[in-house]
Amino acid sequence: MSKKLLAVAISAALFAAAPGCVRYHLGSMLPPDIQTVFVPTVQNQTVEPFLEQDTTSAVISQIQMDGSLKVTDEDKADAILDVVLTRFWLAPVSYASKAASTATEYRMNITASIVLRRLSDGSVILESPSITGYADFDYTGDLTSSKAIALRPTAEDLGRRIVNELVMYWPEHDD
């Protein structure tokens, strides 16, 4: 009986690694000449003030944690990453049980567009018009204080998604 189970396990493992699945692999999409990047302060085109500082810090931090690129000064960089915040909104996630119209938890969403350009000739390496980061937060006290607390995790999520867009890709399936 154990030989049958072993045979089934081996068959399942081989099936999981079938040729159709092998074509999908994770890899860096950065050209080999792009090793360093300059990240200027994020531009905020939303109506919500003060998003740019936390978002800029989060993007730089996420690039450093990923390690595929080194953040450097503009005069030493191979590329420049321009990030523009294009949309900010809150969406209610849950409501008070006794007051169905009173939100107790919100989702903060920030959408950005990015352009990675080669500094030597200005050519576009990567462009993405819409990347959204978000985080859920409890509404406690007043909305301004609650939003201030939620900004950092939202900016970190957006930074992580921007870095994923920069250095990772899933090749297209040929079928």
Q: What percentage of residues falls in helices of 4 or more residues?
A: 25-40%
Gross morphology = elongated
Report, as a whole number of angstroms, the end-to-end distance.
39 Å
Q: Would you report the number of β strands?
A: 6
Order of helices and strands: HHEEHEEEEH
Q: In the CATH classification, which architecture applies?
A: 2-Layer Sandwich
Properties at a glance:
175 residues, alpha/beta, Double Stranded RNA Binding Domain, six-stranded mixed beta sheet, elongated, disordered C terminus
Describe the structure in your own words.
It is elongated, with a radius of gyration of 21 Å. With 175 residues, the chain is an alpha/beta fold. Strands 1, 2, 3, 4, 5 and 6 form a six-stranded mixed beta sheet that branches. Helix content is 34%, strand content 31%. The protein starts with a helix and ends in an 8-residue tail after the last helix. Helix 3 (51-66) packs parallel to helix 4. It has helices at 2-16, 19-22, 51-66, 143-167, and strands at 36-38, 43-44, 70-71, 79-95, 103-118, 124-138. It has one domain: Lipoprotein like domain (Double Stranded RNA Binding Domain, 2-Layer Sandwich). The protein is built from four helices and six strands.
Tell me the layout of helices and strands.
Elements: H1 2-16, H2 19-22, E1 36-38, E2 43-44, H3 51-66, E3 70-71, E4 79-95, E5 103-118, E6 124-138, H4 143-167
Parallel strand pairs: 1-3, 1-4, 2-4
Antiparallel strand pairs: 4-5, 5-6
Helix pairs in contact: 3-4
Quick structural overview:
It contains four helices and six strands; from the N terminus they run ααββαββββα.
